[in-house]
Specification:
Layout lengths: L1 H9 L7 H54 L5 H5 L3 H10 L4 H19 L2 E4 L3 H9 L11 E5 L26 H8 L3 E6 L11 E2 L3 E2 L15 H8 L5 E6 L5 H7 L2 E4 L23 E6 L2 H11 L2 H6 L10 H5 L5 E4 L10 H16 L3 E4 L5 H13 L5 H5 L11 H8 L2 H11 L4 H10 L5 H24 L4 E5 L18 H8 L4 E8 L2 H7 L9 H10 L6 E7 L5 H20 L1
Parallel strand pairs: 2-3, 2-6, 9-10, 9-11
Antiparallel strand pairs: 1-3, 4-5, 6-8, 7-8, 7-12, 11-13, 12-13
Helix pairs in contact: 1-2, 2-5, 8-9, 10-23, 14-18, 14-19, 14-20, 17-18
Organism: Ficedula albicollis (Collared flycatcher)
EC number: 3.5.1.99
Protein name: Fatty-acid amide hydrolase 1
Length: 588
């Protein structure tokens, strides 16, 4: 009766058949429910088709591997898989190993690793065609016969670039990205595309289409992200060299979690042409492509191969700076700045121990160590980094989930973004006295209100870079040694701690080359010390971090190495020094 009266009030001048109106209203609601149900069914059907296509591809590759095994039964698989990239390259160049043998050996191992970790999004069937092409070439490139895995969104002709989103499932790439073209030109064989988190904006590795990727060193733990599929595949032994991307730590965090070496170069050093993303045009904090491998020499060889005339001609926006072998091979003593906490998100005891032990080893090797304090990291994290990505309050990022199913790991971020701007600001005000970091995070999620404010924000980033470089120069530093987030989180925790990435995020805002090197593993003593961990504020984030990393005895512990922009060779040289010293310590 109440609804009927309201309808009469809304339409007072006409005679209304309230029963018909109610039927119409009920029908509309029912139609809406059916429409949403059909939409969800359509999304699920697309995801099932994508998984079926992936599984069929895996079966085809397994069949191809089996045929090769029958033809060449005497292959020493373990011996090939154990070869470092430089030794493998030498054997391929001299002809003592064939590209065919190496490719099918790694295809077989990759099949095993993905069965355990779900790290592959697709095999690239064209790898067999690329194999035939390089076998017919007289000229052998620097990566001749090397199977290379690539991250989901790095374009390969005839393949999807999904970013873990349903909306990208129907579009195949029409041509190779510049990076893939150059890899092929250097004789490499791109053979697999690896899994990523939904929308890439996470350091977990899960999406509703292809599922959760696991860490091969401990399947209860995350491999990191967003290049998590790469991390899992390489750490599991299924790839000797991979290419990832990094906009907040997406190369360095998987390397830290999985015990690998990885380099995030200066953003413009390698071409981004043909690389897709769910949200394009974010220039204030740029994305960078970079290599991931088991050792630093592999990263250096990859960079040397990519920084060639072919890349400079295909993408004239890439500075024509070839790899400087003299800098990488240098043995002169370095002046190294160091810190073990950034003042925003104190890392677990094992990660700080790694910096201290590496500092002592560098000093003993004759390098000069200088205490360095990165300025205003809390300000950088919230005011510069978060506001860059959520400049419009997160609306553009939320749009990519339209008609999709949101991955559980992203729901905390999605729900935060969905709050009205006024609510974010009010909550930030109320929480400031109790939980200042959470308050600043919510305030940053509110975004910006005008173009003028955005221009000013870009200017603030420029000013911060200038301040940071001035402080670096004042101390006459060559490089910086600092911590990286780790050890590997228990699966499900990365989504609860987006802001824990301050250690890596800083060098995306600065656009400095930064790499990660494993130097140790978590000990029982680290685990005992973790029980006393209070973090920065003893707030919910600190307690969650403690839960995320507990029980990680035996997992890799890494450090981060940093250089000034365009000095990738110096960064790699420093990483090599750290790698050598840490190996010597372990052998001692």
């Amino acid at each position: 009766m109440m609804i009927q009266q309201q309808l009469r009030q809304l339409l007072p001048e006409r005679k209304v058949d309230t029963s018909a109106a109610l039927s119409l209203l009920g029908g509309s609601v029912a139609a809406l429910v059916v429409w949403k149900w059909l939409g969800k069914k359509m999304v699920q059907k697309k995801m099932e088709e994508a998984r079926r296509t992936r599984d069929e591809g895996l079966k085809k590759m397994a069949k191809a591997v089996q045929q090769f095994r029958e033809q060449v039964p005497s292959v020493q698989r373990d011996a090939i898989l154990s070869l470092p990239l430089l030794e493998l390259t030498a054997k391929l160049q001299e002809g003592s190993l064939s590209p065919r043998t190496v490719l099918y050996t790694y295809l077989e191992k990759a099949l095993e690793v993905t069965q355990e970790t779900n790290c592959l999004r697709h095999f690239i069937p064209e790898c067999e065609q690329q194999l035939q092409e390089i076998e017919g070439h007289k000229e052998k490139g620097l990566l001749y016969g090397i199977p290379v895995s690539i991250k989901d969104h790095i374009g390969h002709k005839g393949q999807l670039a999904t970013c873990g989103l349903v909306q990208f499932l129907g579009t195949l790439m029409e041509e190779d990205s510049v990076l893939v073209k150059v890899l092929k030109r250097q004789g490499a064989i791109p053979f697999a595309m690896t899994n990523v988190p939904q929308s890439l904006f996470s350091y977990s590795c899960s999406n509703p289409i292809f599922g959760q990727t696991l860490n091969p060193l401990n399947r209860q733990r995350s491999p990191g992200g967003s290049s998590g599929g790469e991390g899992a595949l390489i750490a599991g032994g299924g790839s000797v060299l991979g290419v990832g991307s990094d906009m907040g730590g997406s190369i360095r965090l998987p390397c830290s979690f999985c015990g690998l070496c990885g380099l995030k170069p200066t953003a413009g050093r390698l071409s981004l042409s043909g690389v897709t993303g769910p949200v394009n045009g974010i220039l204030a904090v740029p994305c960078a492509l970079g290599p991931m491998a088991r050792d630093v020499d592999s990263l250096a060889l990859c960079m040397k191969a990519l920084l060639c005339q072919e890349m400079f001609q295909l993408d004239p926006t890439v500075p024509p700076i070839p790899f400087n072998e003299q800098v990488y091979s240098s043995s002169t003593a370095l002046r190294v700045g160091y810190y073990d906490t950034d003042g925003y998100f104190p890392l677990p005891p094992c990660m700080r121990r790694a910096v201290k032990e590496t500092r002592r080893a560098l000093q003993a090797a004759g390098h000069q160590l200088v205490l360095f304090s990165p300025p205003r990291v809390p300000y950088v994290m919230t005011e510069l980094f978060m506001k860059t990505f959520f400049a419009d309050g997160g609306h553009t990022w939320l749009d990519v989930f339209t008609g999709d199913i949101v991955d559980p790991g992203l729901k905390p971020q999605v729900n935060s973004c969905k709050m009205p701007r006024l609510v974010k600001k009010l909550l930030a005000l109320l929480l400031k006295p109790l939980f200042p970091r959470l308050a600043d995070y919510l305030s940053a999620l509110a975004g910006m209100r005008s173009v003028k404010e955005m221009w000013n924000h870009h200017h603030q980033i420029q000013e911060y870079r200038a301040q940071f470089i001035a402080q670096w120069k004042e101390l006459q530093l060559d490089v910086v040694l600092c911590p990286v987030l780790g050890p590997a989180f228990t699966t499900g925790y990365p989504g609860k701690l987006l802001t824990a990435i301050s250690s890596t995020m800083l060098y995306n805002v600065l656009d400095f080359p930064a790499g990660v090197v494993p130097v140790s593993t978590v000990t029982e003593a680290d685990e005992e010390e973790l029980k006393l961990y209070k973090g920065c504020c003893d707030d919910p984030w600190d307690r969650t971090l403690k839960q995320a990393v507990s029980g990680a005895v035996g997992m890799p512990v890494a450090v981060q190495c940093v250089a000034l922009p365009w000095q990738e060779e110096l960064c790699l040289r420093f990483m090599k020094e750290v790698e050598t010293l840490s190996r010597d310590q372990r052998l001692a």
